Here is the input.
Amino acid sequence: MKILLSLILGLLPFAAMASDGLGPDLSRSAVGIIAILIFVAAYVLVMLEDVIHLQKSKPVVLAAGLIWAMIAFAYRDSNPEAVEHALRHNMLEFAELFLFLLVAMTYINALQERNVFDRLRATLSGLGLSYRQMFWLTGFISFFLSGIADNLTTALVMVTIVLAVGGGNRKFIAPTCVNIVVAANAGGAFSPFGDITTLMVWQAGQVEFVEFFVLFIPSVVNALVPALIMHPFLPKGILDRNDEKVQMKKGARRIIFLFICTIATAVGFHSVLSLPPAAGMMTGLAYLKLFGYYLHQRELHQLKNAEDHIGDIVPFDVFRKIAQAEWDTLLFFYGIILAVGGLGFIGYLEMTSAYFYGELGPTTANILVGLMSAVVDNIPVMFAVLSMEPLMSHGQWLLVTLTAGVGGSLLAIGSAAGVALLGQARGYYSFFSHLRWTPAIALGLAASIWCHFWLNAESFQVFNP
Here is the structure.
């Protein structure tokens, strides 16, 4: 019963701003129990999003408001200032993540509008490769592309290629989709920009930017092992060649360059100036806005002088790219961070941290985080770990970064990439077609963990100050 209770609480993220005895103890009160039930109910609705078609942000945003309202009501006569301070702290946590992701999403949308990803799709479709060559090439690109773009965008781009060249061959499309999910998640684990969890770890200061790259080889192993196991089961033969021509729009290469400059600015702000990475990203947004002004004026001029082709020219508008950001995802983060912050304020943090990182030990706990990520979104799980602030070595922080990033590959519903492909490749890729390869993916996960312990053994002796 104790293990079950701790596992349930372990799924709940907690903010570090607990009540510290400055008000009523809500952890054993009706408020605490109701808060947990509200959060669990909201998260069940999130997991059923594809079934009930209710956007995931709606239940968690409501849950966040209800949980904090109950806390504030309970503290109204004792220490309302503590509640206000804790809530503001959590909103600041969200604001930094929100601004960072908003800029990244804006750049990705701008690249999509400039036909960068369509050009990649057309180029690969026209190579005339074999099934097995395309399997490896799409996996290779997914691995490295997800280190810059997020795993969701990477998966959506690559699955369009697979569906375009696959010719309806289920024996090729299904395992290739699995390979894309695994590679995209693995590629995001060694880069601060590859996954929300790595971004959170970087922004929290637990791992510096360049230190993530020691996870490169373990991430490669994680993707390579299941790919090697799947390879003999792929069909032989040559794919149908698609000679579609796609031209990138004016300014596409310069936007790619500006995106790289934006990443460099964010890294510089954090590493050199000790400023939040979000401040660097917002500075990088100004790069795009200024270049967008040039593109807008240029294309507006073309529009005025090309009346016969007025429908072919749409002036670039950076604010349209901002509006096209994944607002449901951004608001989901708001709901998660605030809801779990409320649960942390109530006081469940110490019990969970003591059991997971005290009794079970950091290695077991961090591996469990990866397994939990296959069922529960890795964002609240990682936020829980960061908020607990367990005393563990640098190598353990890298371990939990790795397992949280790649653990979701075990199931189709365990990551945003897998969920996206369930919709895009419906009829070819399914929960059970992914489950067929789960043992191979688990072997890759185990191999990557062993590889990390072997290659980065010295980091397990280093503790953050």
